[in-house]
Write a structure and sequence with these properties.
Layout: E1 4-10, H1 17-27, E2 32-39, H2 45-50, E3 57-62, H3 68-77, E4 83-86, E5 92-93, H4 97-107, E6 112-121, E7 128-129, H5 140-144, E8 156-158, H6 159-165, H7 174-184, E9 189-201, H8 210-218, H9 220-234, H10 241-246, H11 252-270, H12 275-302
Parallel strand pairs: 1-2, 1-4, 2-3, 6-9
Antiparallel strand pairs: 4-8, 5-9, 6-7, 6-8
Helix pairs in contact: 7-9, 11-12
């Protein structure tokens, strides 16, 4: 039985899957495996993967499209390792990633551990590192109430925790919804500062779509998970900030009141952290408040008569 399984679902990823798989295998320990799910691709994805000879590589194929969440759950069910990691078909695993992350998982006593990323674009190969800043288990839930502070393909997790949570839900932001559920149940989520992947930025990404973003903001399951975490960490229910901004039934006075109440609750919770971490949460809160107010103004203008 391998100790670590890396899950990689892919649909029509022939152009990038080879580099993603090879970089992952180079960083993969001997007692680990990489499981790729070809999710009903119409291109040469499967042939590219089949052309890579490595005993640690497993290829599964689905004749009908499953989507990311169902595909990940299928890969989880097909494996039995103690630890589970994620990778995407258009990113690159950085050297030494898994050895570093397994050590960090133990060091932080984490249940779900994430890394940071360096960003690059396919065209100009532009590399843009993010600040190698960690987020502790104590601060992580507050970050989650403000934004999604991690990239899904940097994950390494304890399988027992994913099993307890029931795996991924079929919602627009299946990763963020899972993090919310995990944090609300008291599991330890940590972002280690060390970069884990080179993250490819391109216009075709699902998360770049305005339709996808709105579907995520209004998804009932994600809203419920968010509210449960808010009640656990803030002592009160709350709605996602972007949902407030696009709520047409909420007048400006109600918007301002709900936003101010949320900000006070987050600030009070942040004050229980150490000085540095509290300062980071307050700075992130200030940026998010500015962004959601700007989104609100944009929404109001878009509904004005022409």
């Amino acid at each position: 039985m391998p100790r670590l399984t890396v899950l990689l679902p892919v649909h029509d990823g022939a152009a990038t899957i080879g580099a993603a798989v090879r970089s992952t295998l180079r960083a993969l320990p001997r007692d680990a495996e990489l499981r790729v799910l070809d999710d009903a691709s119409g291109d040469a994805t499967a042939r590219v993967v089949e052309g890579i000879a490595d005993a640690r590589l497993r290829l599964d194929r689905s004749a009908r499209p499953l989507g990311v969440a169902a595909g990940l759950n299928r890969l989880l069910a097909a494996s039995d390792s103690e630890l589970v990691a994620r990778m995407d078909a258009d990113d690159l695993t950085l050297p030494g990633r898994f050895a570093r992350q397994v050590r960090a998982l133990r060091r932080h006593r984490a249940d779900l551990l994430f890394g940071t990323v360096v960003q690059f674009s396919s065209g100009g190969r532009r590399i843009r590192p993010t600040a190698p800043t960690g987020v502790s288990a104590a601060a992580f839930p507050l970050h989650l109430l403000l934004t999604n502070p991690v990239a899904h393909p940097t994950l390494v997790a304890r399988r027992a925790v994913l099993d307890e949570l029931g795996g991924y839900a079929s919602v627009p932001s299946e990763d963020y919804e899972l993090w919310l559920r995990a944090a609300a149940r008291g599991h330890r989520l940590v972002r280690d500062g060390a970069p884990a992947i080179a993250y490819r930025v391109h216009p075709a990404q699902v998360t770049a779509s305005s339709g996808w973003r709105r579907a995520s903001w209004t998804d009932p399951a994600t809203a419920g998970a968010f509210d449960r975490l808010a009640r656990d960490r803030l002592g009160r229910g709350a709605r996602r900030l972007n949902l407030l901004a696009i709520d047409e039934a909420l007048d400006d006075a109600g918007f301002a009141t709900e936003l101010d109440d949320f900000a006070r609750a987050v600030t009070t919770a942040a004050d229980r952290l150490g000085r540095v971490e509290a300062g980071r949460v307050r700075a992130l809160l200030a940026r998010r408040l500015d962004a959601v107010r700007a989104l609100r103004r944009q929404e109001r203008r878009s509904h004005e008569p022409a």
